[in-house]
Amino acid sequence: MDSDQTLNIIVMAAVFGLVFSIWCICLLLWLGQMLARTKLARTRLGIVREETDRTETVRLWRERKREYGGATSQKKTTLQERLETLKNVIGWPWPAHTILITVGIASLLGFFLAFVTSGNMMLALGVAVLVLIAAWRYVLMRFSKYVALLDMQFVDGLGICARALRAGLPLMGSFQLISEEVDKPIGDIFGRICREQMMGRDLKDSIKKVAETEPSAELKLFATSIAIQLQSGGNLAELMDSLSSVVRARIRLGRRVRVLTSQTQFSKRILIALPFVTFLVLDLINPEYMVSLYTTTAGKYMIIAAAVMILIGAWVMNKLTVLKF
Fold first, then answer.
1. Are the CB atoms for 157 and 186 separated by under 8 Å?
2. Rounded Cα gap, residues 1 and 294, in angstroms
3. Which residues of 148-168 are buried (b: 16+ CB within 10 A; e: fewer)?
4. Among 25, 37, 82, 261, which one is most buried in terms of CB atoms within 10 A?
5. CA 114 – CA 98 distance, rounded (Å)
6. Contact 178, 194 (CB under 8 A)
7. How far is CA 200 from CA 98, 169, 175, 222, 298, in A?
8. Taking residues 68-87, what's their average pLDDT?
């Protein structure tokens, strides 16, 4: 190794160390700022005392949450139950295992066709993975549309319930009115509650079951509020109006977050598409230059590493745009 190569290695190592140091400093500054904001928010909410820095909990909410924890806590469910819930949410008439088998057969068919037409194992694996990703993205799109429709209809249902209660109808009568006036999915949900109540099931248990099976945080809040209100008493019409205002504010906040994070989502799509577009363009312009990625072991490992890094980057950017409130 001559002096020029040694000098280049030293320069590259120095540049790498400098960039890595700057990245570590920025990460530490970001973590410190996030911890400071979290502490300030907890102090303003009264969760942490500023003078003693000891955690204090809201006793009433803790006791009620323990008593009616099924409506608010995360209940462990089996894979079969999750698949059945997802099937009901998306509206597929087939069983969950049939859908999984169909997606698997489609992925294997794509792998077989790509391998037969091109003779390239890596390309065939890529096609199979793309089929799985496309199916998963379709499921997520249908799921998000269902949740958005559910929340919007839930706000209208709460308004109908509040007006019906003020008009003199009982709580179950207002739920029956929601099931008749509002379309799917909220109409079916409240209709299910009414049918279970007529069969002798406790109202709190029916609402609790709905909150556990439906993918909506608003329904969990509704179930907990109804359980506490039925236990302690109070004005149900005012409760429905308050819940409606809270849900509307949460929906507005969610839309604002989507607007503010739309640039990040657009950047994510561009950054994910750039490697694929560059790869295809280079493969079309100069196939001899790209043939080493297909024929050599190092090239195949590089393709796998690139795919894994792209997936990790997409996952990280998705996590950056998630706001839990």
1. yes
2. 31
3. eebbebbbebbebbbebbeee
4. 261
5. 24
6. no
7. 35, 20, 16, 21, 67
8. 57
Q: In residues, how long is the chain?
A: 325
How does pLDDT run across 97-125, given as a tens digit for each residue?
777 788 888 888 888 887 787 777 767 77
List the one residue out of 213, 195, 218, 230 whose CA is nearest residue 67. 230
Q: Which two tokens stand for residue 175?
A: 């739920």
Tokens of 274: 């750039």
Numbers of helices and strands, H then E, in the chain: 14, 0
- In one-letter notation, the amino acid at residue 305 is A
Rg from Cα positions in the chain: 27
pLDDT of residue 279: 82
Rounded Cα–Cα distance for residues 8 and 11 (Å): 5
Helix (H) or strand (E) holding 199: none
State the DSSP H helix or E strand holding residue 56, giving kind and residue range, or none if neither.
none
CB 87 within 8 A of CB 95: yes
- Name the E strands within the chain: none
Question: Cα(89)–Cα(213) distance, rounded to whole angstroms?
Answer: 10
More confident residue, 61 or 19: 19
Q: Is the peptide bond before 275 cis (omega within 30 degrees of 0)?
A: no
Q: Strand, coil or helix: what is 224? A: helix
Between the alpha carbon of residue 182 and those of residues 85, 152, 174, 224, 240, the distances in Å are 21, 11, 12, 22, 16
